[in-house]
């Protein structure tokens, strides 16, 4: 049986729980750590996880499989600029980059980018530089010589900015300003990033489709964008991208309907997918309401849908995309309501899964509960009670050793 660890972060309470999910047995608890929820968890090779601690201004490297064995749960830390917006690694898991965003400000104000070398001589080495004020996405890829590149996805004006990691790591103290060695234009409304380590392509979600670029020799080259529309379904756009590395498929949730946030129960949602090694693509209707992040378990893509008429987990076949099951979830106190935004002062849900198992975990924000479901339908759902309330839904990762999750080197 595959060894699994559920890592659940209550970013408001400042606690990280490590649990054996099949038995519900708590293995470790890390207090005083406030995960940057927007940047999320980053899966690294060997079953490790990284996240940014918003209050400490640190990158935290976790070894969930040391929990319960006497080994240290925190494998390493490194200073990073906060508030952390996005987090990504190179395919080896040695080099990481962290961008900064708005935090609790209404407008972007920080231009700091941090790059980290986890395998520096004596301890992880981090370097901060100044790029451009915004809320940039980030990805790392390699040029033909194998040297890592850092790619920032900016908005207003939109662009993909390319930097050589080696030059960033050699920057002097004092957070000096740096300029990209190459830039590609993008629409101003980019939101959502992914990278394919196999082909070296980077992807950015915009209102007009998924823009693509790859590094060809000494310069990046833009490729034809992938449309959100399919012959059967049109309209809307995706705000989130995720790579299913096992099936080499790009996924998103395409949102349509009225633009007013208070009318979110009327939003339409489709699971959008595109095979990276061919032209196959499609959309699967999920239903109205709030659908955003997703997770991958064995042969399944899993979504959560929040709606005043009832919340649910939606299980989609990842090989032949279609809805296989809908599992109702118990309601949340202070859930999003009609006429108000679905993200301000309300409870939310986080979802986690591992490609190595059929288990799916979903939080019940504000209740200190995690629902554990078997996407294959072989077992009944059950509920795990945790000692912190998981305000705002928290954040989770389900980890198995070398389950392939590190093949998606962008934090989720």
| CATH level 3 topology | Methylamine Dehydrogenase, Chain H
The CATH class label is Mainly Beta
Tell me the number of structural domains: 1
**The CATH superfamily title:** YVTN repeat-like/Quinoprotein amine dehydrogenase
Mean pLDDT: 96
Q: Ends: how far apart?
A: 26 Å
Number of helices: 1
Strand content: over 45%
Please bin the fraction of helical residues.
Answer: under 10%
What's the Cα radius of gyration? Answer: 20 Å
CATH architecture: 7 Propeller
Describe what you observe in this structure:
- The chain is mostly beta strands.
- The chain has one domain (5-407): Methylamine Dehydrogenase, Chain H (7 Propeller).
- 1% of the residues lie in helices and 45% in strands.
- It is built from one helix and 33 strands.
- It has one helix spanning 165-169, and strands spanning 5-10, 15-20, 25-31, 42-44, 48-53, 58-62, 74-79, 84-89, 95-100, 112-117, 125-130, 137-142, 148-154, 159-164, 182-185, 193-196, 201-206, 209-216, 219-226, 237-238, 242-244, 249-256, 268-275, 281-285, 294-297, 300-305, 311-317, 323-329, 351-353, 359-364, 369-374, 382-385, 395-399.
- Strands 20, 21, 22, 23 and 24 form a five-stranded antiparallel β-sheet that branches. It has a four-stranded antiparallel β-sheet with strand order 3-2-1-33, with no helix packed on it. A four-stranded antiparallel β-sheet has the order 4-5-6-7, with no helix packed on it.
- It is globular, with a radius of gyration of 20 Å.
- InterPro entries: Quino_amine_DH_bsu (IPR011044).
